[in-house]
Amino acid sequence: MQEAITHPTYLALRKIIHEAADAIMNIYQGADLGVEEKADDSPVTAADLAAHEIILAGLQTLTPDIPVLSEEAVIPFEVRSKWPILWLVDPLDGTKEFIKRNGEFSINIALVEDGVPILGVVYLPTTTEGYFGVTKAWNNLPVGSIKWQGDDAHEPIKLREPREPIVAMTSRSHGPALPADLKESLKRDFEQVRELPKGSSIKGCRIAEGIADIHLRRGPTSEWDTAAQQAIIEAAGGMLVTPQGKPFRYNQRETLLNGHFFITGPQLAPYVTDWYLNHNDENLDQD
């Protein structure tokens, strides 16, 4: 995967995402974040919109024949259902964290082909950490995941083998902590289970790079929240899957809302699927 760092597509995507991050940070460091409410009552800021415009222009230049579906420019299903390949973008994942100014937000860009995320880029503007994953050798890019820091430091990343303590990523703003009975199930084999709250796609990226082990999400997300990190996680040897263990697929339905999911590796996945089986009275499907 190291050869990816000189590939023109990788370099172009890095340039796009760095330019979007600069725009976000200029607003983040100012007095007015330009917060407004969207029709669904979710917040949007001037940074969301500025990053969207930069990413949209950059992707249209990079791949003019591939359409873009962004959180800030939703396309009707009757149009996008005809797209066999598309870019799926969240210009600012973690808008609530951005508004709180806690630094835990990201930029997500995914390439989706026939519903499958085959490439993902996630960038954390406040820490200058970037993650890049390829699950299918598209445009001669090698399969695998890497992390970069700043301008020059690159390293391949992969999931770690489960060990003490098991680190569970939990959501900073959404949903409860790790369920007590799931935690007890894990503690039968791993005495220590530590919870680490974070916002946005940072949670999945920390698992992909081997810092954490598991994340259980119950509550609403959208396709642009998960596609990029799914590609990175899968390319690093992990999974982002439904309660039944099926990978998410994208742009296949009129709704862009996800169901419940979890992120981990194959060794810990049975703990979570067993937990879900014991809670089948809840609506746990992606549909």
TrEMBL record:
Membrane topology, from the record: Peripheral membrane protein
Gene Ontology MF term list: 3'(2'),5'-bisphosphate nucleotidase activity
Gene3D superfamilies assigned: 3.40.190.80, Fructose-1,6-Bisphosphatase, subunit A, domain 1
SUPFAM superfamilies listed in its UniProt record: Carbohydrate phosphatase
The keyword Hydrolase is annotated on this UniProt entry: yes
Binding site for Mg(2+) 2: 90, 93, 225
CDD domains linked: CysQ
Keywords assigned by UniProt, alphabetized: Cell inner membrane, Cell membrane, Hydrolase, Magnesium, Membrane, Metal-binding
Residues involved in substrate binding: 71, 92-95, 225
Compartments where located: Cell inner membrane
Residues that bind Mg(2+) 1: 71, 90, 92
Entry-linked InterPro entries: CysQ, CysQ/Inositol_MonoPase, Inositol_monoP_metal-BS, Inositol_monophosphatase-like
Catalytic reaction list: adenosine 3',5'-bisphosphate + H2O = AMP + phosphate
PANTHER family reported in the protein's UniProt record: 3'(2'),5'-BISPHOSPHATE NUCLEOTIDASE 1 (PTHR43028:SF5)
NCBIfam families for the chain: bisphos_cysQ (TIGR01331)
Function text: Converts adenosine-3',5'-bisphosphate (PAP) to AMP.
Name recorded for this polypeptide: 3'(2'),5'-bisphosphate nucleotidase CysQ
Organism: Marinomonas sargassi
Lineage: Bacteria, Pseudomonadati, Pseudomonadota, Gammaproteobacteria, Oceanospirillales
